[in-house]
């Protein structure tokens, strides 16, 4: 059991999901990282929604609201997947900070907010890819499917946000 998996508190009554037992810790660790990155991204997207200014205010305000609402739903899906494979999901800000690989800066301009969001989505893409690899090794097809869906969503967000920066 790796260091983070120990912190995740593997339950004594882990369900038999057919996941290779020696690989489940790695999947749970990677899921925790995706969960924490998604939560960080959710908070930052909400921050951008609240604080965006400028000529594009209305369009960006609405876009950011749509994105943070979608992320809120996703957070629950990821945490529930962790529980389904027998692990507790991190549930406090300090625990999320332990697992998160992203840390956006509080920016003020619309362009800077967009760039920070792109970077945060790219970080979450990387976490999703690592989780997919771990799920494949563990033959955990449900986690793999969830992560492919998340990967697709984050890649689309990178493309859409990036398009806002083009002239």
Describe this structure in words.
- By secondary structure, the protein is mostly helical.
- It has six helices and no strands.
- α2 packs antiparallel against α3 (57-84) and α3 (57-84) runs antiparallel to α6.
- The longest helix is centred in the N-terminal third of the chain and has 31 residues, at 21-51.
- It is elongated.
- The model has no long low-confidence stretch (mean pLDDT 89).
Q: What is the secondary structure topology, with strand pairs?
A:
Blueprint: H1 3-8, H2 21-51, H3 57-84, H4 93-99, H5 110-138, H6 141-165
Helicity range of the residues? Answer: over 70%
Count of alpha/pi helices: 6
**What sort of overall outline do the alpha carbons produce when their principal axes are compared?**
elongated
User: What average pLDDT do the residues reach?
Assistant: 89
How many whole angstroms does the radius of gyration measure?
17 Å
Largest sheet: none
- H and E string: HHHHHH
Query: Which percent band covers the strand fraction?
Result: under 5%
Structural class: mainly alpha
**Which segments are poorly predicted (pLDDT under 50) over 5 or more consecutive residues?**
none
End-to-end separation in angstroms reads: 50 Å
Which features characterize this protein?
mainly alpha, 167 residues
């Amino acid at each position: 059991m790796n260091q983070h998996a120990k912190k995740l508190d593997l339950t004594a009554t882990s369900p038999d999901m057919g996941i290779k037992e020696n690989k489940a810790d790695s999947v749970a660790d990677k899921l925790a990282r995706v969960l924490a990155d998604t939560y960080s991204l959710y908070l930052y997207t909400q921050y951008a929604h609240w604080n965006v200014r400028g000529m594009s205010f209305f369009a960006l305000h609405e876009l950011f609201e749509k994105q943070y609402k979608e992320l809120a739903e996703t957070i629950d899906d990821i945490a529930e997947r962790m529980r389904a494979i027998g692990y507790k999901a991190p549930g406090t800000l300090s625990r999320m900070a332990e697992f998160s690989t992203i840390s956006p800066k509080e920016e003020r301009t619309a362009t800077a907010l967009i760039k920070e969001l792109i970077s945060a989505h790219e970080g979450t893409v990387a976490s999703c890819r690592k989780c997919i690899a771990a799920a494949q090794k563990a033959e955990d097809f449900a986690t793999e499917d969830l992560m492919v869906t998340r990967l697709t969503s984050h890649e689309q967000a990178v493309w859409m946000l990036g398009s806002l920066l083009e002239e």
